[in-house]
Write a structure and sequence with these properties.
- With about 550 residues, this protein is mostly helical.
- The chain folds into four domains: about 220 residues, Serine Threonine Protein Phosphatase 5, Tetratricopeptide repeat (Alpha Horseshoe); about 80 residues, Serine Threonine Protein Phosphatase 5, Tetratricopeptide repeat (Alpha Horseshoe), CATH 1.25.40; about 80 residues, Tetratricopeptide repeat domain (Serine Threonine Protein Phosphatase 5, Tetratricopeptide repeat); about 55 residues, Arc Repressor Mutant, subunit A (Orthogonal Bundle).
- Helix content is about 80%, strand content about 0%.
- Helix 5 runs parallel beside helix 7, helix 9 runs parallel beside helix 11 and helix 21 runs parallel beside helix 23.
């Protein structure tokens, strides 16, 4: 086929939104003959939409210089905007700002134009991510006005996207998510071009994650997937989209698919074009490996996450907890919590901290953090966070000898987890519900709940949870542990036991944790019952 024939084929594929085919044919034509600016533009766009980011940037750069040579400043500015937008989306803010500055320079001496509004809108995104909302929001408003005036639906969508995300970041989730929903409605109805559709989706999903709105994230993911199915050669999920999709797969219980998607994300994001979300991809892979019991690989993934700039908490601490290194886990989480400076960030650390404090036997501290987590859930009013908080508080109530109150709270958590279609979280709560029923004298319901949880763990491949369920109920206590158990059964707190035995409170917490593990008890009341049943109580 002649070069011109290949070019005609490329144009036809582009018109039919066959992005990979269009890129292949445009690239072949480009190697054989000089392309017109419009065709070079199509080469850049089809490269981007088929996942060839580096080649896309190269083509846009060539188009920018060609437009400058032809003295077409608005066109040159347009291409600078495209390059900067792609870089900004990958987290390369400094190079992006350089290209936006190039766009501004190209427009010197020109009158008002949509390109100026585009540049101001993208600069506003940088201001927004830096927390400069007073500068960002007026710019987004100007961008929306310009988009409506010139009929640029992409500009209007991006301006509304930024405005909505600014509101979310400032704590006005209701108004912010309403704007983001409006943007996504435009995406799925075909009003927004494919390049900006992907950017919109990733930003909206990030907003959903910030406010723990997993239900909305799932709904928009399903809607976008249907939209993408009409463009089989499109690579729609990239950057933080890949990571958030893994999170949703994990929540849904699609663990094998989530692992595959996480590995794909790590490979894609660590390619020749680096993304700032690489650390989050490795973290998500580490979480899945931890849940499935592949601890050595989880360790490697968490370390890679840290190297790529993503702190590995709370995953690394939970890995240490699973390895029995409770003191190390506590230290990691206490430090991470001290650095978390807002309710959403603290809410991501606190559940693991409560779980680890309970494992250490420090029920009093665990209750305090569970109460704070409940307050954060009430503040943000997200079903996901309500379920997390109820599960944590229920575990504390159970450990503190209040099985009736624990059962009510845990059943609320289980109901919400079921509504969110979260099988693993539901199963973990059912284990605690079983323990509460057992303490309340209902062993039959306890067995049913435990069996249902075990079945889910088996289906998911949650090896550590299965091992915890299979752990023998009784292992020999040391003399010191029997001594601590006697004082615990007498109703003494860890602090008073430490004073009486002349030991550190942290040492007592470790002994209490060992007692719980060896006896299979999940509360102080259960441990006391165990002591009486096995005639371990000494008359003092």
């Amino acid at each position: 086929m002649t070069a011109s024939g290949v070019l005609d084929q490329a144009r036809e594929a582009f018109a039919r939104r066959l992005w990979a085919s269009a890129y292949r044919d445009f690239a072949a034509a480009d190697a054989a003959m000089p392309l017109e600016l419009s065709d070079l533009e199509s080469l850049a766009l089809s490269a981007y939409l088929s996942g060839h980011d580096e080649e896309s940037t190269s083509a846009w750069t060539r188009a920018h210089h060609a437009a400058l040579r032809r003295d077409e400043p608005t066109r040159a500015a347009k291409y600078a905007v495209q390059i900067g937008a792609g870089l900004l989306f990958r987290g390369a803010a400094a190079p992006a700002m350089g290209w936006f500055a190039r766009g501004e320079r190209a427009l010197e001496g020109c009158g008002d134009s949509p390109e100026r509004a585009w540049l101001r809108t993208w600069n506003a995104f940088v201001w927004m991510w830096n927390g400069e909302f007073g500068k960002a929001q007026p710019a987004f408003a100007d961008g929306a006005t310009a988009g409506r005036r010139c009929g640029d639906t992409d500009l209007l969508a991006m301006a509304r996207l930024g405005d909505g995300m600014s509101l979310v970041l400032q704590g006005d989730a209701r108004a912010g998510m309403a704007l983001l929903d409006e943007v996504m409605a435009g995406v799925t109805s075909g009003e927004v071009s494919p390049m900006y559709a992907g950017i919109a989706y990733c930003t909206v999903i990030a907003g959903c994650s910030d406010v723990f709105d997993l239900r909305r994230a799932r709904e928009w993911t399903e809607a976008l997937t249907r939209w993408c199915d009409a463009q089989p050669e499109l690579v729609p999920f990239r950057g933080n989209c890949l990571v958030h999709r893994c999170e949703l797969m994990q929540l849904d219980g699609s663990w094998p698919e989530a692992v595959a998607a996480a590995r794909q994300a790590c490979e894609h994001l660590s390619g020749s074009v680096k993304w700032d979300t690489l650390g989050s991809a490795y973290y998500q892979l580490g979480e899945l490996q931890r849940l499935r019991g592949d601890f050595p690989e989880a360790e490697k993934s968490f370390r890679k996450a840290n190297e790529a700039g993503r702190s590995p908490e709370p995953g690394l601490a939970l890995l240490r907890l699973a390895q029995g290194r409770i003191d190390i886990a506590l230290g990691i989480l206490a430090r991470a919590l001290s650095e978390a400076d807002d309710p959403p960030a603290r809410s991501r650390i606190m559940p693991a901290y409560v779980e680890t404090l309970l494992a250490s036997g420090d029920v009093e501290s665990a209750r305090g953090y569970a109460s704070r987590l409940k307050a954060y859930a009430d503040l943000m009013d997200a079903p996901y966070l309500h379920a997390v908080a109820d599960a944590a508080l229920g575990a504390v109530l159970l450990a503190d000898g209040e099985p009736g109150a624990a059962l009510r709270t845990l059943r609320a958590a289980a109901t919400t987890w079921r509504a969110l279609n979260a099988p693993y979280e539901t199963a973990r709560v059912r284990v605690l519900i079983g323990a509460a029923c057992d303490e309340l004298g209902d062993p039959e319901t306890a067995a049913l709940e435990t069996a249902a949880a075990r079945k889910t763990f088996e289906e998911l491949g949650a090896v550590p949870d299965l091992e915890r369920l299979a752990r023998p109920v009784h292992r020999s206590l040391t003399a010191r542990e029997e001594e601590v158990l006697n004082l615990l059964a007498a109703g003494k707190t860890n602090r008073s036991i430490a004073r009486e035995l002349g030991l550190a409170e942290k040492t007592i917490a470790r002994h209490v944790s060992n007692i719980f593990t060896k006896t299979g008890a999940q509360s102080r009341a259960a441990a006391t019952a165990y002591a009486y049943e096995h005639h371990l109580i000494q008359v003092r």
